[in-house]
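Customer escalation, tier 2.

The customer says the design service returned an amino acid string that "doesn't look like it belongs to this structure." They asked us to rerun it and document both sides in this ticket. The original structure tokens are below, unchanged.
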């Protein structure tokens, strides 16, 4: 195995004594051995700092930085400034990784500036796989990557996942942009970092591999109430705007960013303000449009069930029919009908809830053959 290139693994640590041992063990036991493991204790008040020090005594590859609490972005920045590897990798301290993660990423890097892979998201007993929006491939056409970064025009969602983990980042580029990391931005800092990195990159390699386990933590910054949320998002907005200024793709990328920003901003507002909002996860502009309307919901898969569960108890939006081409396949709690039943109900719109564009196009043709006007068909391909 070629291990000539060193990987600096940066782990921001703050009050995670119950998860930290599993995390660090999964790193030190990697089959790829040429690692520099940087544990950044961000002012922990539990035993996390002690656990870090114990690992540094047992493994010479482990170094520990103890610092005053400044947040995850601040801890990552401290780790970056200490890194000496050819690539940098980030692992969150409540997550864990498969033993061959760095071996696979390095072996298949193709010397790309950014090597990115899938990851597991684990919440209680549930596990799903999340992949980048871009197809598995090596990309040297950075125009294409950037044009599809905020919104993936060639598929669904964004071009690259909203995270810094499960990836290898070329150290020289990270060092060149480290001063642009705003430690006061706690929501959206991952994709802002990715965005700035891509502006300075020449290649991306998207892999068909999953070896990172992201553990959903209800106490994380993403899931907790925060009165400064709008202030932070204002900083994020103008940071992106300023970095796009005079860039040759500024106009089209900034328009995509504004759409993405709006969706993320309003999607998280109920969480950050501590409001029990029944439409959480659905774009506010869509809800406003649907108020007072009678809806035929087409799709009983995961996305369809999400929209059904969020709309069924609404007193301002009426679901008059729920249908699917395989009405019995998903076995939801409520009755799902055949699409033929659309002819027998009065409705204002057919809301097609499927993730893939190809599936939507087939359903659209099906509805047109039933003489349903195209302006009565709405496609929702993701929850925000």
């Amino acid at each position: 195995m070629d291990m000539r290139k060193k990987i600096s693994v940066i782990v921001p640590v703050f009050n995670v004594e119950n998860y930290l041992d599993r995390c660090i063990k999964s790193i030190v036991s990697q089959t790829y051995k040429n690692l520099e493991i940087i544990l950044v204790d961000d002012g922990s008040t539990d035993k996390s700092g002690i656990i870090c020090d114990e690992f540094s005594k047992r493994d010479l590859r482990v170094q520990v930085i103890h610092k005053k609490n400044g947040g995850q972005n601040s801890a990552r920045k401290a780790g970056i400034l200490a890194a000496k590897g050819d690539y940098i990798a980030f692992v969150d301290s409540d997550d864990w990784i498969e033993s061959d993660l760095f071996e696979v990423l390095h072996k298949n890097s193709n010397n790309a500036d950014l090597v990115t892979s899938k990851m597991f998201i684990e919440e209680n007993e549930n596990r799903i796989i999340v992949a980048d929006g871009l197809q598995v491939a090596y990309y040297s056409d950075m125009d294409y990557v950037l044009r599809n970064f905020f919104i993936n025009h060639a598929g669904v969602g964004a071009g690259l996942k909203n995270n810094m983990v499960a990836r290898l980042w070329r150290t020289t580029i990270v060092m060149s942009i480290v001063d642009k990391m705003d430690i006061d931005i706690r929501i959206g800092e991952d994709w802002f970092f990715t965005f700035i990195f891509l502006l300075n990159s020449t290649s991306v390699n998207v892999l068909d591999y999953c070896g990172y386990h992201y553990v959903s933590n209800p106490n994380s910054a993403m899931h907790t109430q925060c009165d400064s949320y709008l202030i932070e998002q204002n900083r994020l907005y103008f940071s992106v705007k300023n970095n796009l200024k005079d860039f040759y793709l500024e106009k089209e990328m900034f328009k995509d960013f504004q759409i993405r920003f709006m969706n993320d901003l309003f999607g998280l507002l109920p969480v950050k303000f501590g409001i029990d909002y029944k439409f959480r996860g659905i774009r506010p502009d869509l809800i406003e449009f649907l108020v007072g309307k009678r809806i035929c919901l087409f799709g009983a898969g995961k996305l369809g069930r999400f929209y059904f569960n969020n709309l069924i108890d609404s007193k301002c939006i009426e679901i008059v029919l729920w249908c699917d081409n395989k009405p019995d396949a998903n076995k939801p709690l409520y009755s799902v009908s055949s699409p033929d039943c659309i002819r027998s109900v009065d409705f204002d719109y057919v809301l097609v809830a499927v993730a893939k564009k190809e599936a939507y196009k087939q359903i659209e043709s099906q509805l047109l053959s039933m003489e349903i006007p195209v302006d009565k068909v709405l496609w929702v391909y993701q929850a925000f």
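Tier 2 assessment: The sequence is consistent with the input. The two ends are 42 Å apart (CA to CA). The mean pLDDT is 87. Sent an explanation to the customer and offered a walkthrough call.
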